[in-house]
Amino acid sequence: MTSFTVNGMPLHYKLDMHTPLLWALRDASNLTGTKYGCGTGQCGACTVHIDGVAQRSCQVPIGSIEGTFVTTIEGLSGDRSHPVQQAWAEENVPQCGYCQSGMIMAAAALLAKVKDPTDDEIDQAITNLCRCGTYPRVRRAIHAAAR
Ligand code: FES
């Protein structure tokens, strides 16, 4: 068994320690906002925060994160939308939307670390893939959220 906190709730998982966090979240905890894209750490659709750092949950065995604090898209905001989510809505960022929860989690982690990132800092930090090509709107929304 391994235990860690997800969106403020202490959880205990009786799963194989090698189970990727992505599947523990989606299948055992029904937190389906975290998406499966590639399963190989390339696309970023599965991005969550572990102790505040953006991580690709398909690459994180649950046995390696005992005692950590995990935040998923469902836990990013409290009663009101997170500023990144507000900016995403204002800039109409999503097209199909599939990759966007991972994008938002990556953006929120960046802004928690760098208050007003440059375009270069955004491009280096947000390596998530979007097949709809929403990258220019993602960048605009991050600048808007930084204001
Ligand atoms: Fe994890 Fe693509 S599903 S990086």
Automatic annotation (TrEMBL):
The keyword Iron-sulfur applies. The keyword Iron-sulfur applies. Residues 1-76 form the 2Fe-2S ferredoxin-type domain. This is (2Fe-2S)-binding protein. The lineage of its organism: Bacteria, Pseudomonadati, Pseudomonadota, Alphaproteobacteria, Sphingomonadales. Coiled coil: none annotated. Keywords: 2Fe-2S, Iron, Iron-sulfur, Metal-binding, Oxidoreductase.
